[in-house]
Amino acid sequence: MPDVTARAPESVGLPRIRVGDTGDDAYAHPGITPLAAREGNRAAVAELLDHLGIFAFAVPGRSDHGTVLAVAAEDRARVLEALARCLTHSPGHLSWLQESPVRAPRPRPSTDPRAWHAPADAIGVQVSWYRTDPGGHLLLGHEYGCAVEFWSRRGDRLVAPRAGRGAWSVAAAGPNVWGAGRMFSRFVSDHTAPELAPPLATRPEFLVPGVEDIDFPVDAVYTWVDGNDPAWRARKAAAQGVVYHEEAASDARFLSRDELRYSLRSLHLFAPWIRNVYVVTDDQVPAWMRTDVPGFHVVPHREIFRNPADLPTFNSHAIESQLHHIDGLAEHFLYFNDDMFIGRPVTPHAFFTPVGAARYFPSPNRIPQGPVAETDTPVDAACKNNRALLLERFGRVITQPMEHIPYALRRSAMAEAEAEFPEAWARTAASRFRAMTDLSPTSSFALYYAALTGRAQPGSLRFAYVRLSAPDLAERLDKLLEGRDHDSFCLNDTFSTVEDLEAQQELLDGFLGSYFPTASPCEHTGEERVPWPNPNR
């Protein structure tokens, strides 16, 4: 029998380590991501089948996490024999697939003899090698495995043993064709690094656009400031403007806890469908950041502000009012504050519908009633200003601010809002510090404007908000890390001081480094990194 272990993890020198309290062994993989785990499992099984000369093709399966390969049912015995040899050399996990299981099949270690007891109605087998980072923080398990389905031959057709997202049957004869990686997972787009989601050999019957497909590009935009930068602090001190509320100029608004590094890691790990990433700054670049990575751009304020006299600015509302002027920005984009994170793999469908409508996430809180008052916080004042303008224009009253979830925005909606409300927009852009007259362009106004013009609708995500000044911060962070069950979370504070930062930093360093152990392509690591997405695809 030919060598069938060439791509299994142990054969390429990956060590196995015990992960956490689960008792699971996993292969330690530098630079591991969910997509890398998925592709590693698929490649090992595909190479095995290729060595055996078994004809196989990729199928759009039920899950976005793993992959599915179809083989003819008459090859079942040969496939299982070869898998047994492979998993003896490089132990992993397997589970048996059933047409309509009562519950998800339980994976067992391949070293457990019970793992190989197939139920009578098994229609396939799923194989995985658990992966983790060298520190053992991130466990990528059986959900990223490769399933092998046994398709029955009926005349000149091969028929699927269970429902998937594609055709029920394919022609038994004829060659395979190549299908883009996004045909087999919604976590993949045409802009995902091709080594993480290569084209797969499949059948022509699957190469048809589906009603649920998102085929438009989605970009990500960050705003970032380093409040410890002496040059920036000098500009701030020299700036003219009246600060009406202590929160507007609070040092906490400008503290950098290195969140940006880890938020970018969260995108790299859990949203690999993003096309381009833009970081908007006041001529600041973190020491750890690379600026030569395709698909990653640092954008100075002066490149997006239409009125140069509005600079320098220390008002996030003003900066956000200009984001849609970023050159090359996609129509659909996510706007992140640097304290927002993606907590687990999400698809673009979490933020946009297949026809392009943006999703927004209202907070259970309420905007205070009445006109703007001097006692209002900057957030409440901006919400009230938003409400007044939208009521005047559309005759509808907004009552809720938005959660601190990445804001799904339409570039065209922001441009229209700026054109329709030029005075309020220009006044916001010209406010060097947060002012009572501000709008909150991205976190509320543009979202509701898009909704009222038919381009946005409410959505729902599992989300957590953690205030860094909370006395039980350590317990809250531990719960987030242990569960890893939130789509997004925000680590936010408004009134912390530099002294608070020193006390919080040790907790944050441990939490963020454990939650997001894999460096993104835009970090200096001493090693070449995979490019961000491929913007030319």
TrEMBL record:
Stealth protein CR3 conserved region domain: residues covered: 404-450
Cross-referenced InterPro entries: Stealth, Stealth_CR1, Stealth_CR2, Stealth_CR3, Stealth_CR4
Domain Stealth protein CR1 conserved region: 216-239
Residues in Stealth protein CR4 conserved region domain copies: 478-528
Domain of life according to the entry: Bacteria
Keyword list, A-Z: Exopolysaccharide synthesis, Transferase
Domain Stealth protein CR2 conserved region: 253-356
Family (UniProt): Belongs to the stealth family.
Name by which UniProt lists this protein: Stealth family protein
